[in-house]
Write a structure and sequence with these properties.
Blueprint lengths: L13 E8 L6 H12 L3 E8 L8 H8 L1 E3 L4 H15 L1 H13 L6 H21 L3 E5 L3 H11 L5 E5 L3 H4 L6 H6 L3 E4 L2 H10 L8 E3 L25 E6 L8 H10 L4 E6 L5 H10 L6 E5 L3 H9 L3 E4 L8 H8 L4 E4 L4 H4 L6 E4 L4 H13 L2 H18 L2 H14 L4
Parallel strand pairs: 1-2, 1-4, 2-3, 4-5, 5-6, 6-7, 8-9, 8-11, 9-10, 11-12, 12-13
């Protein structure tokens, strides 16, 4: 995009969306949120610090990439020039960045914070050029640092959607208290998330912490595919698990549970990540190579196909916010097996939409798999119908984006 002078006839709500890396396969919910805001009449300018190293999987994500400004594309020279100009005008911002670095943990020291300040300087320049009225960051990590520093450099006020669990694992290193206290408002994706923000935020900021769920597009799940045949003696229980292969997601526990289960089960793992090697090793160790399929990342259509081929979705997470993959599985009419953590019990109802189990127990997870395998197909379908109704009633993207738009409008001049 080329710089433009601020036009007095620009619409009142011109929002800058700020994400560290965008778009990514696991961020379809951000794309849906942005497009719902645009459908409601807001202008949304996308900013990301960097491009994803993974190839873009879908035409929708490619369109997002084409409409995104990448701050680090400016190179070291562009960042350095913007930083020098900003520090001359706002020397205290440099002092605060260095101070934040001294409070941070590994990877968040003074040098890293000065880099974030340089990124914020570029962002502040673009806010002035484009007449942006508000900045909104997704995730309380790097992107929240950048919008906070941009505010110090004269950019408009900001808000942040905090997802968890990363933000809640390191509240002091991430300066969670300061980010909430200095924001126009803070968003949690669940009531549990709001409670965690309230743990660290000053009391006088609690009224600015609001819950806006991640949303799904009901139109994408308008005609759920019926459950496959079985489970019975001829047709094994088909389970799908969708998510990044990372320690918080617990997929290795699912392999351990399959080894303990007495039922015939076919498992499809959708995703990729740093623990892929550990997963493959666990699969080999238990002799499950013919029963477990790893697909890699799939686009939205591929994920829906994987859900359509399954009887049940499993989410054995150790830590979460409120997983979008879970609400999508429920919207597709699939009962779920998930852990009693974070925002998950706000969405699922044990015995009605699936099975809720303690986190970290392969015994309980194996028992839930066996229970699902023994459940008649008609009963699984009933549970899937209840799951679908609950997900659609709580996570319609149009409704959730409208809540966010109302917050933008209400805090425009604060």
């Amino acid at each position: 995009m080329s710089d433009t002078d601020m036009d007095p006839m620009l619409p009142l709500d011109r929002i800058g969306y700020v994400i560290n890396t965008y778009p990514r396969p696991s961020q379809t919910f951000i794309r849906r949120e942005i497009r719902a805001l645009e459908a409601a009449g807001l202008t949304v300018i996308r900013f990301a610090m960097r491009r994803d190293e993974q190839p873009v999987l879908s035409t929708e994500d490619q369109a997002e990439a084409d409409h995104t400004e990448y701050v680090l594309d400016r190179g070291a020279k562009g960042l350095g020039v913007a930083l020098i100009r900003a520090v001359i005008r706002h020397p205290r911002a440099l002092v605060r960045a260095i101070s934040a670095g001294r409070q941070g943990g590994p990877g968040r020291g003074p040098l890293r914070q000065v880099i974030y300040l340089a990124e914020a300087a570029v962002l502040a320049d673009r806010c002035r050029a484009l007449g942006l009225t508000h900045l909104h960051a997704h995730f309380g990590t790097n992107s929240a640092d950048v919008v906070r520093y941009a505010r110090m450099l004269g950019a408009p006020g900001y808000s942040v959607t905090f997802h968890g669990p990363e933000e809640f694992d390191g509240p002091h290193a991430l300066l969670l208290r300061e980010k909430v206290a200095e924001s126009r408002f803070a968003v949690a994706v669940s009531a549990f998330g709001r409670s965690q923000l309230a743990r660290w935020a000053p009391f006088d900021a609690w009224g600015r912490i609001t819950v806006v769920h991640c949303g799904i597009d009901p139109a994408l799940f308008a005609n759920p595919v019926p459950l496959p045949a079985g489970p019975d003696a001829q047709n094994p229980l088909r389970v799908v698990c969708i998510g990044r292969f990372a320690e918080q997601k617990g997929q290795v526990l699912l392999i351990e549970a399959m080894a303990r289960s007495s039922a015939p089960i076919q498992l499809t793992l959708v995703g990729d990540g740093p623990l892929r090697g550990d997963l493959e090793q666990a699969i080999r160790a238990h002799g499950l190579e013919t029963r477990v399929t790893l697909t890699g990342w799939l686009d939205e259509a591929g994920v829906r196909d994987a859900l359509s081929a399954a009887h049940v979705m499993a989410m054995p997470s150790f830590a979460e916010g409120l997983p979008v993959a879970l609400m999508e599985a429920m919207a597709a009419g699939r009962p779920c097996i998930a852990t009693l953590i974070a925002g998950i019990p706000e969405l699922m109802v044990h015995g009605q939409t699936g099975w809720l189990i303690p986190a970290g127990s392969e015994t309980d997870l194996a028992a839930a798999l066996d229970a699902a395998a023994r459940t008649p197909r008609d009963r699984l379908a009933e549970m899937g119908t209840a799951a679908r109704a609950r997900a659609l009633s709580r996570h319609d993207i149009t409704i959730e984006a409208a809540k966010l738009a109302a917050k933008f409008a209400a805090t425009r001049n604060t």
